[in-house]
Amino acid sequence: MYFASTDNSSEITSNGQQSQDVQKETFPSLAEESMWRMIKQTPECILMTYQVPERVTEAVLREDLGKLAGMRGRQPWFSRGQREELVKVHSWIQSQTIPQGIDIQGCITCESQDSLSDAAEPCGQAPAANSG
């Protein structure tokens, strides 16, 4: 009786690592078993249950503006004393600038306003010293 061995120890190189061929057999590469291949092989009727339906941009923006308006009432309002205390602690509030430590690269509104003009109030936000 003959037993076939699946032990790949004979294919280990001198530095103690398996050859790339053995690694590919043992662990298929991610490119070969990618999500796109799985999607391509899945019937369309099943795929449709996992895809986000296409929406009209204007309708989405209108809904978002409504939600933002609803949240506006829950934004903090500072008293004059609180604003003065914040200005003492955070000098960037007095100068009405954004601290360098805050990453605003993803802010589309700021980018579009910077390209149009040097707006004093980026993102349409009122300066902290003038609120409430």
UniProtKB/TrEMBL annotation:
Subcellular location(s) per record: Nucleus
Biased composition (Polar residues): 1-21
Period circadian-like C-terminal domain boundaries: 1-107
One MF annotation (Gene Ontology) recorded for this entry: transcription cis-regulatory region binding
First-listed, main subcellular location of the protein, grouped into a coarse class: nucleus
Region forming the signal peptide: none
Name of this protein: Period circadian protein homolog 3-like isoform X2
Gene source species: Odobenus rosmarus divergens (Pacific walrus)
Phylogenetic classification of the source organism: Eukaryota, Metazoa, Chordata, Craniata, Vertebrata
The encoding gene: LOC101364585
